[in-house]
Amino acid sequence: xxxxxxxxxxxxxxxxxxxxxxxxxxxxxxxxxxxxxxxxxxxxxxxxxxxxxxxxxxxxxxxxxxxxxxxxxxxxxxxxxxxxxxxxxxxxxxxxxxxxxxxxxxxxxxxxxxxxxxxxxxxxxxxxxxxxxxxxxxxxxxxxxxxxxxxxxxxxxxxxxxxxxxxxxxxxxxxxxxxxxxxxxxxxxxxxxxxxxxxxxxxxxxxxxxxxxxxxxxxxxxxxxxxxxxxxxxxxxxxxxxxxxxxxxxxxxxxxxxxxxxxxxxxxxxxxxx
Length: 274
Hints:
Number of strands: 11
CATH topology: Cathepsin B, Chain A
Radius of gyration: 17 Å
Number of helices: 8
């Protein structure tokens, strides 16, 4: 196992599935915030909202399609789903098709996400188990490595501060791995997962990966970010019936409260603007 990794594992119920893995070598190449203006930005995925649950209803049979003994109805594949949503922003329709990603068919896109999840488990060198042998979950770092090894991205970078996160969102979406509190599963009518004042006291369900697609609003006080009024929007993988048509929101202050357990990875294509 590599010795330069920081690893925090979580329970992997089949609606979640993310572990925190930080690589000191790649973290050294993060882009420090240089004081650039931070503006509201939005990056819309070109695929429908995916669903790592209700697989059979989508026509996905894991016994037939992946050689499992039985058909499971959900997978701990949130990393693959988040990575697929992000990739659909980076690639045009023809590029996505060439990569095997059907941007029109949600079930086909979910198959792509499951395959990406499998690739990521093979690149999570810190553990022996892989999917489809075992539904073990994965990491944002594993997804970035899988995308790079497929030749779909050229590089990936990290953010470790609120300013770096907002700066990355000026150039594209990011993979956002986070601890998932049970309160987050019950967003308010606007999709805010952190609407409940006592969300931090709710039980930890596990780790979850989402794709942050928008810096929806930027608030500043005396030239500094105002975390309580700066809002992130993310694409989840629990179908379009969840939250705001499949998207959730959280305040930057929630990121700061959970930062120790969060990892942010931005896969990139050199010379491309999403």
